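Blinded run. Sample ID left blank on purpose so nobody reads anything into the name before looking at the predicted structure. Input follows.
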Amino acid sequence: MHASSGTAAAQSDEQLFERIVALEERVSELEADRERHREELHAVARENHELRSSHERLEERVDDTEADQNELQSELERAEASRGHIIEDIVDVEEQLADVEMPVESDNGNNAETSQQHTDMAPIERISVMDTDETGIDVTPSIERAVSIFEHWGEWSDKTPKGRVLKDDLKTLLRTATGEGLAWRQVYRAAEALEELSKGRIEFIDHSRHGKMLIESLSARSGDCRSSSAATS
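Blinded prediction complete.
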């Protein structure tokens, strides 16, 4: 009887031990699962932080783009206003030239002949060859730079089958010739003034492939506008 009881107790202890081992294994599995879940939560948190940072950077880029756009719009408005001032300056120059070229009576007719020669020239040519004291013109800086481009036209521009073209290094060339530290907007104003004062013989265009450039077509060179030696050499 005692032997049977001992055997039963031993079996009970063995079963209890096996349950304990199984529970310990289960605890280990649960701890491993909990660790994996913790790592997954950390990964999600990192990803969320990265997404939030990326979103903030995108918002900053949008703000920078809007600021750049506003600055470009302001620059365009200033350029348009400046172009208006250039046209006004050109009108004033032409009016002053017209006053200077009024016929003057002379016994030998030399003054009348000189006046006729100046009348046949484009305004940019007249400003180039006439002394400021003789013209009485208050030439603006943009017009002075336009005259500089005109006087170096043959040297700076390239000859092509369709005429002459100046598309590269205009700012560098003009800065070297004038000794000024020029911004592009000042160079563009000078180019616009040259187009106006040459009566369109030298055009300032924005080419789809080559960008902004000055061109003098063959038809313009052979038109009514007289060519100065500086512009056609």
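Unblinding after everyone has recorded impressions. Confidence is low (pLDDT under 50) at residues 103-107, 224-233.
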